[in-house]
Specification:
Blueprint: E1 2-8, H1 29-41, E2 53-60, H2 68-81, E3 84-93, H3 100-109, E4 113-119, H4 123-129, H5 135-146, E5 152-159, H6 166-177, E6 183-188, H7 196-202, H8 211-227, E7 231-234, E8 237-239, H9 246-252, E9 257-260, E10 265-269, E11 275-280, H10 285-289, E12 297-303, H11 304-315, E13 322-323, H12 324-331, H13 337-348, E14 352-354, E15 357-360, H14 362-366, H15 368-377
Parallel strand pairs: 1-2, 1-9, 2-3, 3-4, 4-5, 5-6
Antiparallel strand pairs: 6-8, 7-8, 10-11, 11-12, 13-15, 14-15
Helix pairs in contact: 1-2, 2-3, 6-8
């Protein structure tokens, strides 16, 4: 089973924290859709159509800047080319694009999961993030979404912002929970160097919050959501039982996925499952419209040792973790003595469970990135 990721590059404006490829001009939307359909058709009768597609994810950018008719034409092309056994088709949307008619059109097109980029209801935080929507629009769109035919939807929220108090975060969570979402993605603000936010931090104009503050935010998110039956199943993802994201879970489980559109990444196991290839389309809309997608950009061949390291890092970010047996059978990987000692210490400090299945506890997930960095650097036995 594989997944398709469709990168829609259009945005109304640049969010201060975003480092995904996007353009703010929108005159070429139909040209882009036409070229995307050509790229989809180019995959006919290739290795990418040998296994059924179980999930499609429209990301970006802002996919909700496409019309329902354009989304329909893209999905029709996918059904023409790929074998499908679809469990989930997600489309990211911004509150200022949502109307009852639009949601109805997307549902008719086949979209069955909406991903709503709320981030916050606080006007000052929305201004800081340079979001295109207002808190009023965010409330209105959630009302429409709750009342729509979408039974599965997810809401994005960002914590760890400069100046964001626990009270502000709690108000945001309380507001979201009024709408009974089956899934929430809560991300700690990441400061990427090339973004506007990254440049302001470098110049000393913005000071990121202390680690202890971000840790308190994390605890509030986990506690508040779990009280509503929305459990953490990955560092940044929370769901009611049975509403976990199929597409994102396939990334963490190291399954094949094909990226389409400018800036989209792909990952595919080679025959025999002893190596894999990762590549991306160049992030340049004009080049894409001229057929630049025909060439893989920066293809990277990954051997089993690299893949084992990657699977370890992906798997331990999830609540269920992964088994030693899977690492041994699929990646020929076994923990060395230093790593086993380190895992034992994590267990003693109640940050991990380390039987046949290894997984991080809530306290471990809070510092997952540093734990994973420690683990993968312990490649030799003293």
């Amino acid at each position: 089973m594989s997944g398709l990721y469709i990168h829609i590059p259009f945005c109304k404006q640049a969010c201060s924290y975003c480092d995904f490829y996007f353009v703010t001009r929108q005159q070429q939307k139909q040209d882009f859709v036409d070229e995307l359909i050509r790229e989809i058709h180019s995959k006919k009768e290739t290795e990418f159509t040998e296994e059924p597609v179980q999930s499609i994810y429209f990301g970006g950018g802002t996919p909700s800047l496409l019309t329902a008719k354009q989304v329909t034409s893209i999905l029709e092309a996918i059904h023409d080319v790929f074998k499908t056994d679809l469990k989930e088709i997600t489309l990211e949307m911004n509150p200022d694009d949502v109307s009852r008619e639009y949601l109805s059109g997307l549902k008719s097109a086949g979209i069955n999961r909406a991903s709503m980029g709320i981030q916050s209801f606080n006007p000052e935080l929305l201004k800081f993030m340079n979001r295109a929507h207002t808190s009023e629009e965010a409330m209105k769109c959630l009302e429409i979404l709750e009342d729509s035919a979408f039974r599965v939807f997810t809401v994005d929220v960002i914590y760890g912002n400069p100046g964001q108090s626990l009270d502000i975060l709690e108000q945001d969570l309380d507001t979201i929970l009024q709408f009974n979402p089956p899934h929430i993605s809560a991300y700690s603000l990441t400061i990427e160097p090339q973004t506007r936010l990254g440049k302001q931090v470098k110049l000393g104009r913005i000071t990121p919050p202390e680690d202890d503050t971000v840790s308190d935010h994390f605890d509030l998110v986990v506690d508040k959501l779990s009280q509503s039956g929305i459990q953490q199943y990955e560092v940044s993802n929370y769901a009611k039982p049975g509403s976990e994201a199929v597409h994102n879970s396939s990334y963490w489980n190291h399954q094949n996925y094909l990226g389409l559109g400018p800036g989209a990444h792909s990952f595919w196991w080679n025959k025999g499952q002893h190596s894999a290839t990762r590549w991306k389309n160049r992030g340049n809309l004009n080049a894409y419209l001229n057929g630049d997608w025909k060439e893989k950009t920066e293809p990277e061949e990954l051997n089993l040792a690299s893949l084992a390291e990657e699977r370890l890092m992906l798997g331990l970010r999830t609540r269920k973790g992964l088994t030693k047996e899977e690492l041994k059978n699929n990646y020929r990987f076994e923990f060395n003595e230093r790593q086993l000692n380190y895992l034992q210490k994590l267990e003693e400090n109640e940050k991990a469970k380390t039987g046949e299945r290894i997984h991080l506890t809530r306290e471990g997930l809070k510092i997952a990135d540093s734990i994973l960095l420690d683990l993968v650097t312990m490649t030799s036995v003293d």
